[in-house]
Write a structure and sequence with these properties.
Layout lengths: L1 H23 L3 H6 L13 H4 L2 H7 L8 E6 L11 E2 L9 H13 L7 H14 L6 E5 L18 E2 L2 H10 L4 E4 L9 H10 L5 E3 L1 H4 L9 H10 L3 E4 L21 H5 L4 E4 L6 E3 L9 E3 H10 L7 E4 L17 H4 L21 E2 L10 E2 L4
Parallel strand pairs: 1-3, 3-5, 6-7, 7-8, 8-11
Antiparallel strand pairs: 2-4, 9-10, 12-13
Length: about 375
């Protein structure tokens, strides 16, 4: 064991030393990854893919004018004056995981050095142009971490996308985008900010509790939940383990059962990613209940008939390799309570509805087709 620890320390030292050396190189990123891992950023989807039978089948019966991808993050560096903020840790090789994540995010978006904000937007517009006319993306603003008193904590914020910037993108590109605001429920001005955002066309509210420092089951959220009901604004809330964004790191804040408080208040809740990764305490058995897969707790909520008209599913990222096959092939008892799955999309109708599932899933999973009950 001592020898293993020595080897681990040596590997870490070499990794960090190499990272520091690479970062010091003028063309570090290109020298390390260009042409190997970096996105080639092709201009158009190859015709053999665009015209593939699976793609055609996915669009069958879908009206593009009623198609919104409702889980789209905005990223950037603030180089356009957008107000976007990213933690210094995301640009430091001394925080290798966050550094690598940040690089891959920007690479996936074909972001250009010195023009990151705008090139990210152009990439999103390009992707919409590759879809059928009428499709839109629902862009997420992203709130800062706040403390228990509702005071912003930039030092514990992984990244921040102001509501004003998301709103501005919709004003500039109404054919491409809609937007969701992000407002911390503990803020003293949370309700006023929500009223203003909805007045400015925000379609929903996006929260990531663990990163933002929010306990969705806290009484501090009650006033905000009542405002959501009054405004008929849905809450898109991450549940399950969070791996992409660190921020406040509030342990267990992603427990799906904590969203009962919002649901019982009458809020329409969309659980992001179907809580498809991680495990949480089964709070239905008390604060010291056993830990079970977060997806199991999500499925339990979905199966409850009292939440049928208020609880919905966001399936973004569930096809990633770090998800269990149970997410693709839930048991019949779970499936009976779940009517909101898709392998590639969420459809938002004028009155928010559950999405349709039209899937050509792996053989070990299932193949189901349902229509959107709008």
């Amino acid at each position: 064991m001592p020898e293993l620890n020595k080897q681990c320390r040596r590997f870490l030292q070499q990794f960090l030393t190499s990272g520091a050396a690479i970062a010091a190189m003028p063309s570090a990123r290109g020298a390390l990854l260009d042409g190997i891992i970096f996105n080639p950023c092709g201009t158009a989807l190859p015709q053999h893919l665009a015209g593939h039978p699976i793609v055609a089948a996915a669009w069958s019966g879908i009206d593009p004018a009623r198609y919104w991808d409702c889980h789209v993050h905005i990223a950037g560096t603030g180089d356009s004056g957008s107000g976007i903020y990213t933690s210094p840790d995301m640009n430091s090789v001394w925080h290798p995981v966050q550094f690598a994540q940040h690089e891959f995010y920007l690479n996936a978006a074909c972001a250009k050095e010195g023009n990151v904000d705008q090139s990210y937007v152009e990439r999103m517009r390009h992707l919409v142009d590759e879809l059928k006319p009428g499709c839109k993306l629902l862009l997420f603003a992203f709130e800062q971490a706040h403390d228990e008193a509702g005071k912003a904590m930039p030092e514990h914020t992984a990244f921040h996308v102001p509501n004003a910037y998301a709103h501005d993108l919709v004003r500039r590109y109404p054919r491409y985008f809609e937007w969701a605001c992000s407002i911390h429920p503990y803020r003293p001005d949370a309700v006023a900010a929500l009223d203003a955002a909805v007045s400015d066309g925000a379609r929903a509210v996006k929260l990531l509790p663990s990163a933002m420092g929010i306990d969705p089951a806290s009484p501090k959220c009650d006033v905000f939940y009542r405002a959501l009901v009054r405004l008929d604004a849905p809450l898109i809330c991450h549940a399950g383990e969070e791996k992409a964004v660190h921020g406040a790191g509030l342990k267990d804040a992603g427990n799906p059962l904590k969203l009962r408080r919002a649901l019982d208040a009458g809020v329409r809740v969309i659980i992001a990613h179907c809580a498809s990764i991680g495990d949480d305490i089964d709070l239905d058995k008390g604060a010291h209940g056993s830990r079970v897969p977060s997806f199991e707790l999500f499925a339990r909520l979905m199966a409850e008939t009292r939440y049928r008209h208020h609880l919905f599913a966001d399936i973004s990222a569930i096809t990633q390799r770090n998800r269990s096959v149970e997410v693709f092939a839930p048991s019949s008892s779970i499936m009976s309570g779940i009517t909101a799955y898709s392998t590639a999309r969420i459809i938002l109708c004028p009155a928010y509805c559950r999405c349709s599932l039209r899937a050509n899933w792996p053989k070990r999973a299932c193949s189901i087709a349902q229509s959107c009950p709008c």
